[in-house]
Amino acid sequence: IFAREPQMVSNIVGTLWEALYEMDDLTASTGSILRLLATMLSLRSHAVGDAALNSDERLVDLVPRLWPFFRHALSSVREAVLDALNVLLVRSSKQITDTWLDAVLPTALRHVYQNLLIEETPAVLNLSLDVWKVLVRTASPAALLSAVSEHIASWLELLSTPTGKPLSQDHMLVARHQGAQHKASSTKRAKLEDGGDAAKKPGPVPVVLGGASQALALEPSVVLDTRFRGAAALGHLLGHLSTLALPMPAVGQSLLDIARSKTAMKKIVASMVVTAWMKLTTNADAALLGSLNEAFHEVLAKPIGYDEMKDFVGRMRGEVKKLKGIYMSAGFAGADAAVGDPATYTMERAEHLAKVLTVEFDTKVSKNNVDLCHISRDALLSVVADSTAEYGRLQLAVGASVAAAVTSTRLLPEKLSPMIVQLMNSLKSEPEEALQQMSANALALLLALSAGREPWPGT
Question: What is the value of pTM for the model shown?
Answer without folding.
Answer: 0.85
